[in-house]
Amino acid sequence: MSHPDQLYRILEQLVEVPAGTIQGNETLADFQGWDSLAVVGFIAAVDKHYQRAVPVQPLIEARTVGDLAALLDRPAAI
Amino acid sequence: MFLSGFPALQNCQSMSAILSAIEIYLPEQVETNADLERQFPLWRMKQIGEKTGIQQRHRADSGQCASDLAAAAAERLFASGACRREQVDFVLFCTQTPDYFLPTTACLLQSRLQLSPGIGALDFNLGCSGFIYGLSLAAGLVHSGQARNILLLTADTYTKLVDGPDRNVKTLFGDAAAATLVQHHEEGTGCAIGPFVFGTDGSGAENLIVRGGAFRHPTEPPILKMNGPEIFQFSLRVVPPCLEELAQRASLRLDEIDLFVPHQANRYMLEHLRDKMEIPAEKFFIGMENCGNTVSSSIPIALHQLRQQGKVLEGNRIALVGFGVGYSWGGCLLR
Predict the structure, then answer these.
(1) Which of A47, A50, A59 to mutate to test the interface with B (most CBs of B within 10 A)?
(2) What is the pLDDT of residues B182-234, one digit of tens each?
(3) How much of chain B exceeds pLDDT 70, in percent?
(4) Angle between helical axes of A36-50 and B267-276 (0-180°, round to 10)
């Protein structure tokens, strides 16, 4: 699975939408399931699938799926 | 070479400390997830309950302080016959919600529990790592020959610090106390304590904090604030290496440890840590369903539950790990 596709599938599970829903240009606020539990779930999923730590403050401030994808391109926080 | 007038320790092995008994106390008032859903209809309590693993938490009432919970746990310890109150020669009390700024709550407990005046008593302020540090202090007192029967008390009333609608903390924390007896091995039977691993990183202080009510921000009310994602990330960063170092100090491989008893933060975090470390589920205790996150009492409550369930067997190697507010963390092996 390519890098963005894997991320989108992870996000779909976290915000509880059907597979294939997320294409990369969505706003996170449009997903009812994007809440503090999903944020923690995102940290866990990135740790599990990418073996890296997401910088937390930029994650909390992320507004779009693209913002989340960009976090994975940043240097690891730890 | 020994200083003149000070007897040399005959044999360090002869001064070993054991954990010999634990009793707990949970206040009567219970707040269930259904109660919270009625108060806050927008909270998705079913989903929150599934993620956190918490279905209810106990709350001290308005007149109950940490010392009241600790005294109740200690009375249960005495009633169990594990120790007579006149045997106790030191009281260690871990709390972040003391009755007063001063005097020391452990002094109040010495009087209330009718313990001898010829004993030591002190408070120490730690949260989720507090039980580990308490065991370390107690074991140190035994090893150095300063005390033989130490009453280690942990108690907090975090629910008094919770701002009503703050879902992050209100759904997680519960009030509780535990009384743990640490003895010189000649005084009783139990698990040997140690080795230990410690860790501290005060740069994370802002992520779990009560800013008001003390002297830095005296006009602000004492309200608990938690940055959940930061705490989660911190836990992923420190817990696995802490346990690996603990095993190394004990000359063990991780798979030679029979049971892991982590601070009972929340189920989602613990399951992720367990999977990350590839620890089998049956060796990794998760059990905060009926009491929530009880801070420094969570590990002794978990040990108490395990004992009641008959899951602690003689000769077991048990790894404890506490982590949280501070940041502070620590690990300890029982065997």
Answers:
(1) A47
(2) 999 998 889 999 999 999 999 999 999 999 999 999 999 999 999 999 999 99
(3) 96
(4) 0
Catalytic residue among B65, B94, B128, B332: B128
Residue B97 to residue B105: CA distance in whole angstroms: 10
Backbone angles phi, psi at B287, to 5 degrees: -165, 60
Cβ contacts of A49 on chain B, cutoff 8 Å: none
Contact A78 B237 (CB under 8 A): yes
Gap from B270 CA to chain A (nearest CA, Å) = 11
Buried b (16+ CB within 10 A) or exposed e, B93-127: bbbbbbbeeeebbbebbbeebebeeebebebbebb
Chain B residues touching residue A41 (CB < 8 angstroms): 268
Burial classification of residue A15, based on how many CB atoms lie within 10 Å of its CB (0-12 exposed, 13-18 middle, 19 or more buried): buried
Instruction: Select from B51, B167, B229 the Cβ nearest to the Cβ of A43.
Output: B229
Q: How far apart are CA A9 and CA A12, in angstroms?
A: 5
User: Angle B216-B220-B226 (CA atoms, 0-180°, nearest 5)?
Assistant: 85
pLDDT tens digits, B312-333: 888 899 999 999 999 999 999 9
| B307 touching chain A per CB within 8 A | no
Check CB contact under 8 Å for B233 and A60: no
> Scanning every residue of chain B, which has its alpha carbon at the shortest distance from the alpha carbon of A78?
B237
Contact between residue B150 and residue B138 where contact means Cβ atoms under 8 Å apart: yes
Mark residue B36 as left, alpha or beta (left: phi above 0; alpha: psi -120 to 50; beta: remaining): alpha
How does pLDDT run across B170-195, given as a tens digit for each residue?
999 999 999 999 999 998 889 999 99
- Is B11 among the catalytic positions? no
Instruction: ipTM value, please give it.
Output: 0.88
